[in-house]
Design goal:
The chain has an 8-stranded parallel β-barrel, surrounded by 5 helices. It has 2 domains: 2-163, Jelly Rolls; 202-592, TIM Barrel (Alpha-Beta Barrel), CATH 3.20.20. The longest helix is centred in the last third of the chain and has 34 residues, at 409-442. It has helices at 209-215, 224-228, 270-284, 289-299, 323-330, 354-369, 390-400, 409-442, 462-467, 472-477, 500-506, 528-534, 543-555, 573-579, 585-592, and strands spanning 2-6, 33-37, 49-55, 60-67, 73-76, 83-93, 102-105, 113-115, 127-138, 143-148, 153-163, 202-207, 238-242, 303-309, 375-378, 448-453, 483-487, 512-517, 520-522, 538-540, 560-563. It has 15 helices and 21 strands.
Length: 611
C-alpha cells in the first residue's frame, strides 16, 4: 500500500510523453486529500493476467492487463478504518484500440458493473484515463474484483481511494419538479438561478439487446442486471428493450418464429453467434429475457417498452435452419424492389403483401401480451417498406388507370406516393386492431411510439418518410400512434434536430413528440476486420453536449427524449455521472436555460396575427 498527499490528482497521464492529457473530468475535490494507492507491482496475479512496467520521463507505471477470457482478479483495497471512500480506477487506452472494457464489483454489491474509458478522436498514443467508480462504504479487507468482457481487453494502471462523505442518491423518485439535488462529484457546472417549476421529463434509453448480449459478459441470467442496474438509480424513466436480432430472429419466446439460436448453429457474424450462446444459456435456465427485463424495470420504477426493428434484414438471413429464415425464403419474391425492378439494396420485405404485414402484426401482438408498457416501432431499421413490386404496380394501375412505367412523371408521382403509404398505414390499422384485442384482455391501453426518418432538413424529413412508404401524420390523425420520434436517417451519429415542421404537421392530434438522440459521432471508417480487432469506429460524445441537446429538444416541445442504442452509456464512469441526470428537466433548464428553442426563433420574436 502507498499513501500520498498531493494537491492535484493527475488524471489522463500520457504513457507516451509522461505529461498530462486534458481531462474534462478532473476533480478539484481531490485537493489536500489523503489518497490511498494499491501497489500493483506486488499484486498476486492469476493465470491469464500480465503485468508490465511502462516507463515515462519522470516515473514508471505498472500496467496489469488481460484479454478475454481470463479469471476474476481480486485486488485488496488499502482500507485500515471503515468509512466511505471515493474509488478511482486508472483505465489504460491502447493506441487505435477502442475495445477496452471490463466489469468491476465491490463487496456488498450484487451486480457487476461494466466500465471502460472514453473514446476520443485522438487515440494514437497509449494513455491512462481516470475512472471515478463512485463512493462506497468499505471495511478492512475489502477487495475490488475485476473480470474481462467478450471482444475486449482489460488494462489498469492504478487503483486509488480517498476518504469521502456519504453520497446522496439521485433517482427519478427523489427528484421532484424544481429540485436540484447535489451531485456526488464535481462534474457539474454551477446552475443558474432556478426558474419556475417545470413538469418532470421523460427520458429513455434504446437497447440493441442483441449487441448487448454479445458484448457484455452474460454467463447466468442475473448477469442481465449488469445491463439494467445503472438505470435503477438515475433519472431515466423508460427502457426500450430490443426484441430481436434483425426482424425475424426474436430475443424472446415467440410462438411464430421461435428464438434466436434455438435451431440455428452457424452464423455469418460472430456477434450473432455470441448472442445465440446467451439465449441458449437463458433457455436452459428457463428464463425469457424479455420477461426478465420487464420484471427488473417494474421493480425499480421504470417503464419497459418492446423495441421492434420493423424491417432489418440481410442477405445472409435467408436460410433454412431457423423459422425466420424459412419465412424469408418462402417469401423471397416479396422483397422491396427499386425503380429498376431489382431487389432493393436494403434487403427489406414489402408491406404491399398481406403475408409480410400479417407476420409483423402477429409478432408485435406477441410482444404486447408480455407485461410491456408500450410498443416502440423502429422504422429507421430499415426503410423503404414499399417500392416497385408487382403488387404495388398492379393495384395502382387498377385504382388510377395509369401505368407509371409509361406515363409522364407529373401524371402519377403524387398519387403513387399516397398509394405506397397506404400499404403501411393498412398495417398500422391492423396492428391497432390486434392491440385492441390484447388491451381488452389486459384492461389497459398499449401505447405505440414510432421512430421515423425526419432530421432537420425538411426535404429529408417528412417527405423522405412518404417516399419510403411511411406517413406518420396520417397515423397520428387516425390515433394509430401515441408518440412520434423523428430522427436523423442513422441515429447512431449525433446531429441536430428541428421540430418546427413536425409540430405543425401534428397540430390537432393527440400524438406527442419525443426526441431521438445519439451519444457518439462518426469520425472514421473502419473495415469489418478492423472493427472486430480494434473496436468501434466512433468517438464518444461529450456528455454535456448530449445534455444540451436534450435541453434543446425539451425546449422545442418534446415530451421526452431518449438516447439511441445506448446500452453502453453507463460504462464510462464520469460520463454516466452527467448523463444519469438527463431526466431532470429542471436541472437542464437551470444549466442551459430556455434561450434556445424552436429553430425559427418564434419563441422569442413577437408578432401579432392580423385578423
Amino acid at each position: 500500500m502507498t499513501t500520498t498527499s498531493r494537491r492535484h490528482f493527475m488524471t489522463g497521464v500520457s504513457l507516451a510523453t509522461g505529461g498530462l492529457l486534458l481531462d474534462p473530468f478532473a476533480r478539484s475535490v481531490w485537493a489536500e486529500q489523503r489518497t490511498l494507492t494499491v501497489n500493483l507491482a506486488d499484486l498476486d496475479l492469476p493465470d491469464g493476467w500480465t503485468r508490465k512496467e511502462h516507463r515515462t520521463r519522470n516515473d514508471s507505471v505498472w500496467i496489469v492487463s488481460a484479454e478475454h477470457p481470463a479469471p476474476v482478479i481480486s485486488i485488496p483495497l488499502p482500507v485500515e478504518n471503515s468509512g466511505h471512500f471515493e474509488l478511482h480506477l486508472g483505465m489504460v487506452v491502447r493506441p487505435k484500440y477502442r475495445n477496452a472494457a471490463m466489469q468491476v464489483k465491490i463487496p456488498g454489491q450484487r451486480v457487476w458493473r461494466r466500465v471502460r474509458p472514453m473514446r476520443f478522436v485522438e487515440d494514437s498514443v497509449p494513455a491512462v484515463q481516470d475512472g471515478m467508480l463512485g463512493v462506497f462504504e468499505l471495511d478492512e479487507g475489502s477487495t475490488l474484483q475485476i473480470r474481462t468482457e467478450p471482444v475486449s481487453y482489460a488494462a489498469i494502471a492504478y487503483v486509488t481511494l480517498t476518504p469521502a462523505a456519504k453520497p446522496k442518491t439521485i433517482s427519478r423518485r427523489a427528484l421532484a419538479p424544481g429540485s436540484v439535488e447535489p451531485q456526488t462529484s464535481n462534474t457539474s457546472p454551477k446552475p443558474r438561478a432556478s426558474a419556475p417549476r417545470l413538469m418532470p421529463a421523460h427520458a429513455g434509453v434504446v437497447f440493441d439487446s442483441a449487441m448487448t448480449m454479445s458484448t457484455f459478459r452474460i454467463e447466468k441470467p442475473s448477469d442481465l442486471d449488469t445491463v439494467l442496474a445503472p438505470y435503477a438509480v438515475s433519472t431515466f424513466t423508460h427502457i426500450f428493450w430490443g426484441t430481436g436480432v434483425g426482424s425475424y430472429s426474436p430475443l424472446y419466446s415467440s410462438e411464430a418464429l421461435g428464438w434466436h439460436g434455438q435451431e440455428q448453429k452457424e452464423f455469418r457474424a460472430d456477434h450473432r453467434a455470441r448472442t445465440a450462446d446467451v439465449m441458449r444459456m437463458l433457455a436452459r435456465h428457463k428464463v425469457d429475457p424479455l420477461t426478465y427485463a420487464i420484471k427488473f424495470a417494474h421493480e425499480n420504477g421504470l417503464q419497459l417498452w418492446a423495441n421492434d426493428r420493423i424491417s432489418k434484414n440481410h442477405e445472409h438471413d435467408f436460410r433454412d435452419d431457423y423459422p425466420g429464415g424459412r419465412f424469408l425464403l418462402k417469401h423471397k419474391d416479396k422483397r422491396v424492389q427499386a425503380s429498376d425492378f431489382t431487389p432493393h439494396y436494403q434487403c427489406t420485405m414489402s408491406f404491399a403483401y398481406p403475408e409480410i404485414r400479417d407476420m409483423k402484426v402477429r409478432t408485435l401482438a406477441e410482444q404486447a401480451k408480455y407485461n410491456v408498457d408500450g410498443l416502440y416501432l423502429d422504422f429507421v431499421r430499415k426503410p423503404p417498406l414499399v417500392g416497385w413490386e408487382p403488387a404495388v404496380l398492379d393495384s395502382f394501375k387498377k385504382q388510377h388507370g395509369i401505368d407509371p412505367k409509361k406515363a409522364p412523371r407529373d401524371e402519377w408521382f403524387d398519387p403513387w406516393i399516397d398509394h405506397g403509404c397506404g400499404f403501411v398505414t393498412e398495417f398500422m390499422r391492423d396492428l391497432r386492431e390486434a392491440l385492441d384485442r390484447v388491451e381488452r384482455e389486459r384492461g389497459r391501453r398499449i401505447p405505440v411510439m414510432a421512430q421515423v426518418n425526419g432530421d432537420w432538413r425538411y426535404s429529408s424529413g417528412f417527405p423522405s418518410c412518404r417516399m419510403e412508404g411511411l406517413d406518420p401524420v396520417v397515423w397520428a390523425k387516425e390515433g394509430l400512434i401515441d408518440f412520434l420520434a423523428p430522427s436523423e436517417a442513422n441515429s447512431l451519429w449525433h446531429q441536430g434536430q428541428s421540430f418546427d415542421r413536425w409540430r405543425q404537421l401534428l397540430a390537432g392530434t393527440d400524438c406527442k413528440l419525443w426526441g431521438a438522440m445519439a451519444q457518439k459521432f462518426r469520425e472514421g471508417q473502419r473495415s469489418t476486420e478492423e472493427r472486430e480487432r480494434l473496436g468501434p469506429e466512433h468517438a464518444d460524445l461529450d456528455p454535456w453536449r448530449v445534455m444540451r441537446h436534450a435541453s434543446d429538444l425539451y425546449n422545442q416541445g418534446a415530451e421526452g427524449v431518449y438516447i439511441w442504442e445506448a446500452h453502453d452509456v453507463p460504462t464510462v464512469p464520469q460520463r454516466w455521472e452527467v448523463l444519469k441526470r438527463i431526466g431532470d428537466r429542471q436541472f437542464l433548464h437551470d444549466t442551459f436555460s430556455s434561450l434556445i428553442g424552436p429553430y425559427d426563433g418564434s419563441h422569442t420574436f413577437r408578432q401579432k396575427v392580423l385578423k
